[in-house]
Amino acid sequence: MGGGGAVTLSLTMIIFLSSISVCYGYDPSDPYGNVTITWDFLSQSGPDTYGIKVSIYNLQQYRHVEVPGWKLEWTWNKSEVIWDMRGAEAVEQGDCSAFKASGAGQLPHCCMKRPVIIDLLPGTPYNMQYTNCCKGGVLSSMNQDPSKYLSAFQMSIGNFLVTRPGSDSPFDKLNITMPTNFNLGIPGYTCGDAFLVPPTRFSDDKGRRWKQTLETWNITCTYSQFQASRAPRCCVSLSAFYNTTIVNCPRCSCGCQGLGGAKCIKSGDEPPPTVLQLPQEPQAAAAPPLVTCSEHMCPIRVHWHVKQSYKEYWRVKITITNLNFLKNYSDWNLVVQHPNLKSVRQLFSFNYQPLTTYGNINDTGMFWGIKFYNDMLLTSGNQGNAQTEMLLHKDEGIFTFREGWTFPRRISFNGDECVMPPPDDYPTLPSGAYTIGANLNPSLLLVSFLFLAVAAPALF
């Protein structure tokens, strides 16, 4: 291959790799993240009844399952019914009249060909609970709260062909097979086919004796931001102490005023009574956002402000603002990609954990709120924001204020990528200034801070 061909191939590969995005079902910050459903055949009581344990694991590092939670569906291949269930419940029982007509004393819990299963709520009576149940379908990410990333329930399944009244045919007992067409009931998630894996091993006496299930099947569900929502859900604005320019979120980042599906209320106006009467959680979670009118029309805005420069350190302020009138964001998280995150020295009022995905590359970090302090972003208003400041070391040989280096490359909120301003619009250094250190002109600092304080007090 000639030199020109090699260059063309290299350019093609670069374009291809740069086009990979979470919008298409692959997240480079969490390449192995998914939701795994484990289907364990625990026991067989007779030729026609099985005990089944279903576990739902959120194996994503930062994307969690929010209110109203998972709503698991599948399709039976034959004539299976759910006799009993603990830790969850079917939304509908279905038509079980054939069992009543046959003289069976107990009606099944669910006779639907495609049952819809939901988690029980916290506070459910103990005789209905099961291990790791009763979270209302909410699953935390693995990093944010490892104790709440698993949900499970148990059910007793029988497989019958029941004759209708007037028929002389006896009951036919069938072999149970794995159901198909699994669906988590969460926008953006697509589940694959069930596949057989080694049986799950478990111990009832702290490891003295181990047992295993009859069979274990796994179903893998992956997330696509594009399938979850055609419009982005957050955007990023930028500013810096060395430039009076405030770079706002790009116009129409999440929608445009006047277009269908974009509803907003002007700043300072009170929402109409019909809005205030709308139910909040969980019904409002699935409702289209009603936001403060803006050029970007996003429910969430993240502002990154380069605040100060010291001799060996620099300081950043991050502000997350909820502009949605209908939704509180519980247990929110923010993922930031920036080359200097490997040198974080101190963080105020947020939790932080680096996401080292590729070897020793440490340029991505996860931020989330402190429990009972700022782990919830309230609906649009004076309390609908969370802020932190971060102190980073100036790495010798690579740190610079030039070329927009101090601004993030990517930001995502609750696992959805935010719209970034174009790099050409990033705040730049004043003409002729190449370095900014401890001897920065105090007059420039004073003018910049006064301008920012007057122009956008809400951001800082």
Outline the structure in words.
The protein is mostly beta strands. The chain contains five helices and 29 strands. It has helices at residues 3-19, 97-101, 225-228, 273-276, 442-455; strands spanning 35-44, 49-58, 71-75, 80-86, 88-90, 116-119, 150-161, 172-173, 180-183, 189-191, 195-197, 201-203, 210-212, 215-223, 234-240, 243-247, 263-265, 290-292, 300-309, 313-322, 329-330, 333-337, 344-348, 351-354, 364-368, 376-377, 385-393, 410-413, 416-417. The strands form seven sheets. Strands 1, 2, 4, 7, 8, 10, 11 and 14 form an eight-stranded antiparallel β-sheet that branches. A hairpin with a 3-residue loop joins β19 and β20 (313-322). The chain is elongated and about 85 Å long. It starts with a helix and ends in a 5-residue tail after the last helix. Residues 1-23, 162-174 and 434-460 have low confidence and may be disordered.
> Count of helices?
5
Major sheet: 8 strands, antiparallel
Structure class: mainly beta
Using DSSP, what is the number of strands? 29
Helix content: under 10%
Distance between the termini: 56 Å
Beta fraction: 25-35%
Please tell me the overall pLDDT: 82
